[in-house]
Amino acid sequence: MAVNLVVPEASALRPIAGVRLGITEAHVRKPNRKDLLLVEIAEGASVAGVFTMNQFCAAPVQVCRKHLGHEPAIRAIVVNTGVANAGTGEPGLAAANETCAVAAALLGCRPDQVLPFSTGVIMEPLPVERIEAGLPHCKASLKADNWLDAAHAIMTTDTLPKAVSRQVNIDGRMLTITGISKGAGMIQPNMATMLGFIATDAAVAQDTLQDMVRFAADRSFNVVTIDGDTSTNDSFVLIATGKAGNPVIRGEGTAEYALLAEAVTDVARQLAQAIVRDGEGATKFITIKVDGGETREECLRVGKSIAHSPLVKTAFFASDPNLGRILAAVGNSGLEDLDQAKIDLRLGDVLVAQNGARAASYSEEQGKRVMKEAEILVQVSLGRGVECATVWTCDLSYDYVKINADYRS
Amino acid sequence: MAVNLVVPEASALRPIAGVRLGITEAHVRKPNRKDLLLVEIAEGASVAGVFTMNQFCAAPVQVCRKHLGHEPAIRAIVVNTGVANAGTGEPGLAAANETCAVAAALLGCRPDQVLPFSTGVIMEPLPVERIEAGLPHCKASLKADNWLDAAHAIMTTDTLPKAVSRQVNIDGRMLTITGISKGAGMIQPNMATMLGFIATDAAVAQDTLQDMVRFAADRSFNVVTIDGDTSTNDSFVLIATGKAGNPVIRGEGTAEYALLAEAVTDVARQLAQAIVRDGEGATKFITIKVDGGETREECLRVGKSIAHSPLVKTAFFASDPNLGRILAAVGNSGLEDLDQAKIDLRLGDVLVAQNGARAASYSEEQGKRVMKEAEILVQVSLGRGVECATVWTCDLSYDYVKINADYRS
After folding, report:
1. Which residues of A touch B90 (CB under 8 A)?
2. Does A333 lie in the same domain as A260?
3. Could you report the per-residue pLDDT of A104-115, keeping only the tens digit for each?
4. A5 lies in a domain?
5. Taking a C-beta distance cutoff of 8 angstroms, is the pair B192, B236 a contact?
6. For chain B, what percent of residues have pLDDT higher than 90?
């Protein structure tokens, strides 16, 4: 069902010196599937993260925020699927802390050097004893070239694993970046998505890495949406092991920062787009570009208003050029003083609306031709400024309803 | 498909002295259906309205706002279905004005004493010549007891007509209120819904009537949602003919105002709930009560966040007590400083979550029992104040996707 989503060969995913990954079947919620991931991070790495803005954030998110805030540096990540450990109160926090304690004992570090992550059903207790029993198996299987298995182990309703690797040459030194993500539903990441992990062998100062993870999130996970539901567990973590031996990148103003941030953002964007391509029930991959705004923020609001409209999404599913629905969604974005007479709408290479009304040159046949494609570009010009933004989304199909009516069953 | 929606007998809809309604088949977009309504209002009536906050508002909405703003009083309403006359630019405005001119000539009033309304497909030109040809037939069929036919004539994807009538005794004088509405999709009215018309024979001053229509809208049409899409054409109009001969109600502070406003709001609420019961693909009618808020507005935000969540709506469709999704939606409502440890959730008579986590007494069986009902009450307590609000919505089913993928075809 996924839209043009290519799964890389395991060998195409470059190991990151200083990172090893171990996987097991812990039977967290269902048997016979890889559902527990342990990531070991070498000493000396910087780790930064951004987390959901959902106020009902999960217990592991609360623990991550606490552990990331201080020294010593993070040495391990534990991820389980099946149960989200959200809406679980104090017992949920205890389970997340217990997970950290067990992983720390196995790897010889402190519990607050471990970040826990969970994804799955909300308001069910985390069976922490199964995670405790599984972690030694994860440790036994730790390998540097295990990224594709790790991408498998964090899937829920995802149909395909998501993993991306790339390199960037900075000052004659080749730096490597590899990341994985999962998504599929409850996807309108707000700060990050559930879940994205990217590692690089570059050396980056802690504060600078935090700037970089925010920069990358705002241009990748934070601009995709499947269904407008922001998860309780969204998390995006960036690890810089420093094993490449480059001079430590410090501060946002340097050329090295710009090059690495762009490469990290590129990986994050591919991982975020992979989530959309594999969105629950998705049959179309839709890119929404909004320009002519007074601010990037208002362009994003218009883009997300279009991307969240069930009527727009069902029209894409039907390949029906019922494009007035896009204009309605633009008007529904809550922008003050929007002048509809200045708005243009393009679909692929077709000018659909000009100055707020159907373009004289537009014909239904043109719209139909573009709507039939699996990848569709929507361009809206607001005619009131010079800022722009891009949002990626998918259509709303029978299968979205089916998947979410059946999930848990 | 509608959920417990009862269509009244035509005889149960009381005429309003001073209001006559005429209907015809004008073939606006499709043949063989009543699609044009003319409402004649006697001299001396007050008419007030509220309209969509969608910035891409339709041409007729723009014309209504202009005509309602000044004397002389409104004498007629024209409603067509099939084409929304939105996203139609200057030609759309000309078509709406032409509609007013033709109706005015037929009824012997000025064009600015006519309010035009349209509902249907966006960004298609209004075939104004068909409306011109149909209006004389509407005039010929003007009758006082035509409310049910009028409710039929304004339907689009509605499966049933929506009409309500009631009386209220004020100072020994029986006043009558009758109204109609239509809805089904693109429904998250923001100021009013597409479309509601209520008339009363009470005498109410113009300014006071405007207060009353806003009061009623905020407690009826503005607190229902089908899919979170605010239409380009939402309009809610309240007509007070004064034919009952009561002393003119003037000012919000009087006992007479309170009694009439409550009766009008009751009619509006029933019409708004009828729209939800007949929501596109609806199989469940869901009442969401939020209390313990600091303000009514924040309770509404929480209620709408739950009502708009596709994951919550698909769980209702499946009768699956996957109720953590409701907690996630509460957390996703954007409230600052929400303390999840203070939140309680009830489903019908079942305490599901207490202090932000699954209640000790809760069992899956209890949740399943309530989820199977066709009418479900969700109660959320925020534990931070004394304000409350109620929102009504429906589930998200295969048929919502089917209807909106097929609409227009």
Report:
1. 357
2. no
3. 999 999 999 999
4. no
5. yes
6. 41
Shared domain for A273 and A369, answered yes or no, is no
Which residues in chain A touch residue B321, judged by CB atoms under 8 angstroms apart? none
Interior CA angle at A104 toward A250 and A49, to 5°?
Answer: 35
- A265 and A299 co-located in one domain: no
Whether residue B251 lies within 8 A of chain A, CB to CB, comes out as no
Kindly tell me if the per-residue pLDDT of B182 is higher than 60: yes
If asked whether residues A133 and A215 sit together in one domain, one would say: yes
| Domain assignment of residue B328, yes or no | yes
Domain contains A1: no
Helix axes A128-140 and A89-107, enclosed angle (nearest 10):
20
Q: Of residues B299 and A194, which shows the higher confidence score?
A: B299
- Looking at the structure, do residues B252 and B227 belong to the same domain, yes or no? yes
Cβ of residue B363 closer than 8 Å to a chain A Cβ: no
Domain boundary, last residue among B277, B300, B329: B277
Domain tally, chain B: 2
SS (HEC) of B355-404: CCEECCCCCHHHHHHHHCCCEEEEEEECCCCCEEEEEEEECCCHHHHHHH
For residue A409, is pLDDT > 70?
no
Catalytic residue list of B = 193
Contact A122 B325 (CB under 8 A): yes
Kindly determine whether residue B332 and residue A229, on different chains, have CB atoms separated by under 8 Å.
yes
Beta strands in B194-253 (DSSP E): 194-200, 224-225, 235-240
A324: closest CA of chain B, how far (Å): 5
Residues of A tagged active-site? 193
Query: What's the token pair of residue A182?
Result: 């999962």
For residue B168, what is the DSSP state? E
Could you tell me the CATH number of the domain that includes residue B325? 3.10.20.340
Ranges A233-247, B25-39, B79-93: which has the least confidence: A233-247
Contact A216, A238 (CB under 8 A): yes
Question: What's chain A's average pLDDT?
Answer: 87
- Residue B99 inside a domain? The answer is yes
pLDDT bin (cut points 50, 70, 90) of residue A213 is confident
Q: Does A123 contact B400 at a Cβ distance shorter than 8 Å? A: no
CB contact under 8 A, B404 and A314: yes
* Residue where a domain terminates, one of B224, B253, B277: B277
Mean pLDDT of B85-105: 94
Facing B331 at nearest CB: one of A56, A402, A409: A56
CB contacts < 8 A (A, B): 222
Q: What token pair was written down for A160?
A: 């395909």
A311: confidence class by pLDDT, cuts 50, 70, 90: confident
pLDDT of residue A185: 62
Q: What ipTM was predicted for this assembly?
A: 0.71
Phi, psi of A395, rounded to the nearest 5 degrees? -85, 175
Residues spanned by the domain of A188: 10-277
A118 and A20 in a common domain: yes
Same domain? B268 vs B331: no
Select from B199, B190, B204 the least CA-distant residue to B252.
Answer: B204
**Mean pLDDT score of chain B, rounded to an integer?**
87
**A residues 211-230 near B, CB within 8 Å?**
227-230
Is 0.90 topped by the overall pTM? Answer: no
Pull the structure tokens for residue B160.
Answer: 């049933």
CB pair distance less than 8 Å for A401 and B404: no
Q: CB count, 10 Å around CB of B86? A: 33
Interval A218-245: pLDDT, tens: 777 777 676 666 667 778 878 888 888 8
Of the partner residues A123, A186, A340, the one whose CB lies closest to the CB of residue B327: A123
Residue B333 with chain A: CB contacts under 8 Å: 55
State the average pLDDT over residues A13-27: 94
* Residue B405 pLDDT greater than 60, yes or no: yes
Say whether both A160 and A108 belong to one domain: yes
The reply to whether residue B310 touches residue A404, judged by beta carbons under 8 angstroms, is yes
Return d(Cα A151, Cα A145) in angstroms, integer.
12
Residues of A in contact with B87 (CB under 8 A): 324, 327-328, 340, 353, 356-358
* A274-296 pLDDT tens trace: 888 888 888 999 999 999 999 98
CATH number at residue A96: 3.60.70.12
Asked whether the beta carbons of residue A227 and residue B355 sit closer than 8 angstroms, the reply is no
